[in-house]
Please model this.
Amino acid sequence: MKVFLSWSGHKSHQVALVFRDWLPSVIQSINPYVSSEDIDKGARWSTDIAKELEDSTFGILCVTKENLEAPWLLFEAGALSKMMDKSSVCPFIFDLKRAEVKGPILQFQSTIFEKEDVKKLLMTLNKSCGEAGLKEELLSKTFEVWWPNLEESLTSIKSERSEEEKDISDKNLNNEILEEILELSRTNQKILRSPEILLPPEYFDFIVKEKLDKDLSERERELLSEQRHLLMEVRHRTMMMHEMVSSYRIEKRVLDDEFYEEFRRYIDLLQRHQMSVDKTYKIMNRKY
Model:
């Protein structure tokens, strides 16, 4: 009996390949088919696949988080349901819960990655084999022998992160970093527009009005001058970072070396500014 294994995405493909090798070990009359084409990269639906669909008696859809709404998987599910009875099409739910499944796939009776549920799937497949199927007692014994092999293979796939998941994770991480930097940039702009939020008015009075105080030493005057220049540079650099972050978000660019280098300079500047503020406060405390 021919069994068509439908897949879409890296993890789904791995699951399909495991079943292709495992199913004939349990029920020797099963002849599984897995398309070797990378359907996620735009390969056309070939006549070979169409023929296999037509000749297959049973269809298993390898459903994962990454392909739950994949057009190709839904297309093959529809094609399988038209060519055979719905009871002969079974989604294998892998690495997600039944409650997470939605859409057209819900019309089929699904199987999850649990021993008893997989055994029920094997019983259904065996019945579809007709006279070529195994006796129920023999099937149960054979299943017990081969189940650990399937469990180990699928568990190893479950622990892996697919390229699609890595891309999503990297994008999410980039977005989180950009959001944090953008928020930092907005906060600094707000502080520069209304410095009293962070520093009391007497601090700036000291910088602006007392800079000509004859009691100030040359070193103290230099420190105050440095503080004014740093404030101007922080304002300029904050505006630059704000524009840069906005540009990366709009263009959906991945954070690169150029970005990290600019961000490092920005953080260094903020640290220098904080050190200068601390020194200035010491002068204020000493003189007043």
Q: What stands out?
A: The chain has a mean pLDDT of 76. The CA atoms of residues 54 and 83 lie 6 Å apart. The first strand starts at residue 2 and ends at 6. The chain is about 65% helix and 10% strand.
